[in-house]
Design goal:
Strand content: 15-25%
Distance between the termini: 46 Å
Oligomer: single chain
CATH topology of one domain: Rossmann fold
Structural class: alpha/beta
Largest sheet: 6 strands, mixed
């Protein structure tokens, strides 16, 4: 059955998957959502033990219904190849009786690789399907991981340019080095004086600028997005939750039909929304445990039903979650509002103007699948240290937030359901915070000395993504105020 896509702010709009991927964001400012969540058409026991690429096809074919089998399989083969440092693509590692879904074995050692390895191929295929002659300009904001993963995906891809904005003092040193050393004549990286929400708001404003869109069209250019607002990012993320269940089934860790809980560290809500979609496709998921850091806007939302970004922005050791406007939550709000675009638009306008909104009691009832928790900086560091001392397994700061929240969840509820934790980044990406948590004696070491020490004590090799930036020269040194983002974009594109 064909799946079409509507805007969360105009349910009457119906476009194909390829059109939604190309646009990224709807003209009305809404996010594209499928007109229905398709059910898996293969029993999970048939998927047990199947390679990641096979499961990717079985899931993605149900959402990207205007792609041919050959087109989709070609995109998948090109995405999940030797860029990943393990043949499983996504290993499942057991530690302390919990299963860690290692989503960081791609070329930039973070979970964003899982979707951003395939998005360029989906986008180019979509452009051909829709006879697009314009050059596609990927415009994206990053809190640290999306930027490098998108740059790596689109670098050198013919018919595209990519411009990435990041908060200048809001990412880890390794994250910044990964971005500013990115090669490729079609790549541009800019640090802004502000936080991630400033960068994301600036990007959204540029997308919604009708005059600029006209100037772009005249120059043979058009914008699209690699942020998690793009449905081409969300659909590939659903795959690894289906894969995790199938793998646990294959390994005899669960029986067919047995429920699992899933814990996801998230700021922008896309990664846990993908788990929600997997659950609604038929994967037996019980609780969706949403783990926040000290920017606990999502925790407060699930606790009270009120979303309120009017609060102090905290810089934490888990910077990819330092977000106060969780863009993908809009997709869930639209759903629990009964696919009522008018109601959703009203709430989003309240968020834009007043910085907050509150859902109805009827909508709150539909959030029963979710559980919100958060971990302080102290709890996050303690979890890294405990995990290492108890098992020798080293986790990054974001994964530690999820692990700490999970332990508090079990203590509070007594729920011992088999649990998968989304491990969203390699500890090497946040080596300073991770090593400080393990022992303060490491604080005097340089970033790359810390990397080598982490490798030694964790008994794991240094990832290629880190080795390649040790001596790489800085290629991008642009910095601007948040008010100058549009000017910078026009200058890069030669339309100023």
């Amino acid at each position: 059955m064909e799946v079409l896509y509507s805007s969360t702010r105009n349910s009457g709009l119906k476009i194909t998957a390829s059109q939604a991927i190309l646009k990224g964001l709807s003209d009305d400012g809404g996010l594209f959502v499928p007109d229905h969540i398709p059910a898996l058409d293969r029993p999970l026991k048939e998927l047990a033990g199947r390679p990641y690429r096979d499961i990717a096809y079985e899931v993605m074919k149900l959402y990207l219904t205007d792609f041919t089998e050959e087109e989709l399989k070609t995109c998948i083969e090109r995405a999940y190849d030797s860029k990943f440092d393990t043949k499983e693509i996504v290993p499942v590692t057991e530690a302390e009786g919990v299963y860690y879904l290692e989503l960081f074995h791609g070329s930039t050692i973070a979970f964003k690789d899982m979707a951003l390895s395939i998005l360029p191929h989906l986008m180019i295929t979509s452009a051909k399907k829709n006879h697009v002659k314009n050059e596609i300009v990927i415009l994206t904001a990053t809190s640290g991981d999306t930027g490098k993963a998108a740059l790596a995906g689109f670098a050198g891809v013919e018919g595209t340019k990519i411009i990435v904005f990041y908060p200048k003092n809001g990412v880890s040193p390794i994250q910044e080095k990964q971005m500013v050393t990115q090669k490729g004549s079609n790549t541009y990286v800019v640090g802004i004086r502000g936080n991630f929400d400033d960068a994301q708001n600036g990007v959204k404003a540029i997308f919604n600028d009708r005059q600029l869109a006209g100037e772009m069209e005249a120059a043979g250019l058009q914008f699209s997005s690699a942020n998690s607002i793009n449905i081409g990012r969300l659909v590939p993320q659903i795959v690894y939750y289906v894969y995790a269940y199938a793998q646990l089934l294959h390994d005899g860790k669960i029986s067919d039909g047995e429920k699992i809980n899933v814990v996801v560290p998230t700021g922008n809500f896309g990664n846990i929304l993908a788990a929600f979609y997997a659950k609604n496709m038929g994967v037996p998921i019980g609780k969706l445990i949403c783990a926040s850091n000290e920017n606990k806007v999502l925790y407060d939302f699930f606790t009270t039903g009120k979303y309120d970004r009017n609060r102090e922005f905290v810089l934490t050791s888990s910077p990819s979650m330092d977000i106060l406007i969780s863009s993908n939550l809009e997709r869930l709000i639209y759903r629990i509002a009964g696919d009522d675009a008018g109601k959703n638009t009203q709430l989003m306008e309240s968020l834009s103007k007043a910085g907050s909104y509150e859902i109805t009691e009827q909508m709150k009832v539909q959030l029963s699948d979710f559980y919100g928790g958060y971990a302080s900086e102290e709890e996050t560091a303690k979890r890294i240290k405990e995990m290492y001392e108890n098992t020798g397994y080293i986790i990054d700061t974001h994964t530690a937030v999820a692990s700490a929240v999970y332990r508090k969840y079990v203590a509070k509820t007594g729920d011992k359901t088999v649990t998968v934790i989304a491990s969203t980044a390699s500890p090497f990406k946040f080596s300073r915070s991770v090593m400080h948590a393990i022992d303060g004696k490491y604080d005097t070491m340089s970033d790359f000395e810390l990397v080598d020490e982490l490798s030694e004590i964790g008994k794991v090799p240094v990832p290629g993504a880190i080795e390649e930036i040790r001596t790489a020269p800085v290629v991008h040194d642009h910095v601007c105020d948040k008010t100058e983002m549009k000017t910078v974009v026009k200058r890069f594109l030669g339309i100023d």
